[in-house]
Design brief:
Layout (H helix, E strand, L loop, with lengths): L6 E5 L6 E9 L3 H8 L13 E6 L5 E10 L10 E8 L1 H13 L3 E3 L4 H8 L5 H12 L3 H11 L2 H25 L11 H17 L1 H9 L1 E6 L6 H9 L17 E7 L2 E7 L9 H15 L3 E6 L5 H9 L6 E5 L6 H4 L2 H7 L49 E2 L8 H13 L12 H23 L2 H19 L5 H9 L6
Parallel strand pairs: 1-6, 7-9, 7-10, 10-11, 11-12
Antiparallel strand pairs: 1-2, 2-5, 3-4, 4-5, 8-9
Helix pairs in contact: 4-5, 6-7, 6-16, 7-15, 15-16
The structure holds ligand FFO, guanosine-5'-triphosphate (GTP) and magnesium ion.
Magnesium ion binds next to helix 9.
C-alpha cells in the first residue's frame, strides 16, 4: 500500500505568521522532492536527524534557512517516508516552498486529514486514535485537551478492544460448536451470560457519550428569569468582566449575550438573556422569544429570582425552560428581604429559627460531593450561608447569590459544574463521540437480540447476532469501517493534518 500511494505535501502549520512554519511531505518521493528544495541534504540522510539547510527555489536562489527532517518508512507518523522542512513562519514564504514542492509533479497537495488517514491505513493508529488527533487539534478547553490526549494514547481504543476481543472469541466458540459439534462441545454453554456481560460494557461506554459531548463542545448554560432580577450583573460576575449592560430599568437586556469561560477545565458557554415579563414592548417581546428559543437548546438553565418572588410566579418562570434542566437561585441576596419582601418571604422568615435541612444534596438544586464549599452539617447564622437556611422543610435548599457583592457566586459555580458533570473530574473521560455511540448502540442491540436468542432460538441465530455486533464495533475501531465512513471521518480534518 505504501509504495503505490502518491506523495502528498501540505503545510503542517496554520497559514498565519508564526515563529516557525512546517512543510510536510509523505510518500515514496518525499525525500526526492525535499532534496530539490534543500539541495545540500545528502542522498541518504540520517533519519530523525535535524539538518540545518538552505531552502531554494527552482532557480537555486535561497528562500530561507531552516531545518530538514527525514523519517524513513515505516518509522514515521504516516508509516511512509516523511520529510519536513521547518522554515521561518512567513505565510508567503511557506506558499513559495509549497509551490516549489508541487512544481515538478512528483507530489500533489494533500487532502484534508490525508496524513492521518495514511497513518490509519498503514496501521500506525486505529480509528479512535485518528479521531483523537482531530479532537486534540480542535480542543479549546483543558478538559478537551486532556480527554483527546487520553484518546491519542489509546484510552478509548483499549476499551473498545476489551469489548471486541472477547466478542470475537465468543463468536469463534459459537462457530466452533456449529461447525464442529464434537470437538467444540460445551463451548457455547455460558454464551448467554457472556453476551450479557459484554452488553453491559457496551452500555457503559455509550453512557459516556454525554460527557464526551460536554467536553468536546463545552457546556451551554443560560441565565434567565424575570426582568431586573440581576441576571446581567450575575453574568458579569461569573464571566469576570463587565460584558453585559446593567441598569435598574427593567428590560435592559434585549439580545442574548454569550461568553466563554473555563471552569475546572470544562469549557462553558454562558448566556445572559432578555428578562421575562408579562407585557413587554414590541422589541422586548422579540428578545423574550429569543430567550425561550435559547433555553430549549442549553444543557442547563439558571433561573434567577429576585427577593420576594411569589411561589406562583416562580413556577411560571420555571415552566419557561420546558424540558431543559433548571437550577433555581435566589438572586440579590444582599438585599434585606424585609424591605422588598412579599408575603411568602415573611412567612418563611417567621420560621428562620428552624434548623437547616440536614443535607442540601437532596433534590434538583443540590451540590454533590466535594464540589460544595459549604458543609451542610456546619451550623451557621441565618443569611450568611449561600444555601437558603429559610427554605421550608421538605424543599431542597436554594442557593442565595448576589451578583453585586459576589456572595454565593463560587458556590453557584460549583453547583453548576456538579449539575453539568456530576462527580469526578472532566479530564478523566473517554471521548465517546456521537459516531461511536451510534455504532456502540447497534452493537448493544445486536447483543440484546443475541441474548434473547440464546434462550429462545438456535445457536445460528445467536452467532449471527454476535457477528453483527462485532461488525458494528469494528466501525468504532476501524477494523470494519467502510470506505465511505472513513472518507466522512477524515473530511472533518484540516488540510495538513
Ligand atoms: N514536527 C512535527 N511535530 C509533530 C508531528 C509531526 O508530524 N511533525 N506530529 C504529527 O502528527 C505529532 C507527533 N506525532 C508523531 C507520531 C509518530 C511519529 C513517528 O515517527 N512514529 C514512528 C516512530 C515511533 C518512535 O520512534 O517511537 C512509528 O510509529 O513507527 C512521529 C510523530 C505532533 N508533533
Ligand atoms: N442589591 C443588588 N442589586 C442588584 C444585584 N444584581 C443586580 N442588581 C441591580 O438590579 C438592577 C438590574 O440588574 P441587571 O443585572 O441589569 O438585571 P437583569 O436581570 O439583567 O435585568 P433585565 O436585563 O432588564 O432583565 C441594576 O440596578 C443592578 O445594579 C444584586 O445582587 N444586589
Ligand atoms: Mg439584563
Amino acid at each position: 500500500m505504501t509504495s503505490v500511494s502518491p506523495t502528498i505535501v501540505a503545510l503542517a502549520t496554520a497559514p498565519t505568521a508564526g515563529a516557525v512554519g512546517i512543510l510536510r511531505l509523505s510518500g515514496p518521493a518525499a525525500l526526492e522532492v525535499g532534496r530539490r528544495l534543500a539541495p545540500g541534504i545528502p542522498a541518504e540522510p540520517t533519519p530523525r536527524h535535524a539538518y540545518l539547510a538552505t531552502f531554494v527555489d527552482a532557480a537555486g536562489r535561497a528562500l530561507d534557512e531552516g531545518l530538514f527532517l527525514y523519517f524513513r518508512a515505516p518509522a514515521s507518523f504516516t508509516g511512509e517516508d516523511v520529510v519536513e522542512l521547518q522554515a521561518h513562519g512567513s505565510p508567503r514564504l511557506l506558499q513559495l516552498l509549497l509551490a516549489r514542492a508541487l512544481e515538478d509533479g512528483l507530489a500533489r497537495l494533500a487532502m484534508p486529514g490525508e496524513f492521518t488517514r495514511r497513518a490509519f491505513l498503514n496501521g500506525r493508529i486505529d480509528l479512535t486514535r485518528a479521531e483523537a488527533v482531530a479532537d486534540l487539534v480542535a480542543a479549546d478547553s483543558e478538559s478537551a485537551v486532556r480527554a483527546a490526549a487520553a484518546g491519542l494514547s489509546g484510552a478509548l481504543s483499549e476499551r473498545v478492544r476489551a469489548l471486541e476481543e472477547p466478542l470475537r472469541a465468543l463468536h469463534a466458540d459459537l462457530e466452533g460448536v456449529l461447525n464442529f459439534p464434537d470437538e467444540a462441545e460445551g463451548a457455547d454453554e455460558d454464551a448467554g451470560a457472556r453476551v450479557q456481560a459484554l452488553r453491559a460494557q457496551a452500555e457503559a461506554l455509550i453512557a459516556e457519550a454525554g460527557h464526551g459531548r460536554l467536553v468536546r463542545r463545552g457546556a451551554r448554560v443560560a441565565l434567565f428569569g424575570p426582568v431586573n432580577a440581576g441576571k446581567s450583573t450575575l453574568f458579569n460576575r461569573l464571566v469576570g468582566e463587565a460584558r453585559a449592560l446593567v441598569d435598574d430599568e427593567p428590560g435592559t437586556t434585549r439580545d442574548a449575550l454569550e461568553a466563554r469561560v473555563e471552569w475546572r477545565g470544562l469549557g462553558v458557554t454562558l448566556f445572559d438573556t432578555a428578562g421575562l415579563r408579562e407585557t413587554p414592548g414590541r422589541v422586548e417581546a422579540l428578545g423574550i422569544a429569543r430567550t425561550r428559543e435559547l433555553l430549549s437548546g442549553v444543557d442547563l438553565a439558571v433561573l434567577v429570582l429576585p427577593p420576594g418572588t411569589a411561589e406562583a410566579d416562580a413556577e411560571r418562570w420555571l415552566a419557561e425552560a420546558g424540558a431543559t434542566p433548571v437550577l433555581r437561585i435566589d438572586g440579590k441576596c444582599d438585599v434585606d428581604a424585609r424591605s422588598s419582601a412579599m408575603t411568602e418571604v415573611r412567612v418563611v422568615e417567621a420560621r428562620s429559627d428552624d434548623s437547616r435541612p440536614t443535607s442540601p444534596r437532596t433534590g434538583v438544586d443540590a451540590v454533590q460531593g466535594s464540589a460544595s464549599t459549604e458543609s451542610p452539617s456546619t451550623p451557621r447564622a441565618p443569611f450568611t450561608s449561600p444555601w437558603d437556611a429559610t427554605s421550608p422543610p421538605g424543599t431542597p435548599p436554594r442557593l442565595r447569590v448576589s451578583g453585586l457583592t459576589g456572595e454565593g457566586v463560587d458556590t453557584l459555580r460549583e453547583a453548576l459544574l456538579s449539575r453539568l458533570w456530576g462527580g469526578g473530574t472532566p479530564s478523566a473521560v473517554a471521548l465517546v463521540s456521537e459516531r461511536h455511540a451510534d455504532a456502540l448502540r447497534r452493537a448493544s442491540e445486536a447483543l440484546s437480540r443475541a441474548e434473547s436468542a440464546s434462550r429462545l432460538s438456535t445457536l445460528e441465530v445467536v452467532s449471527g447476532e454476535v457477528a453483527l455486533s462485532l461488525e458494528a464495533l469494528g466501525e468504532v475501531s476501524g477494523t470494519s469501517a467502510s470506505e465511505a465512513l472513513i472518507d466522512a471521518i477524515f473530511q472533518r480534518f484540516c488540510i495538513g493534518k
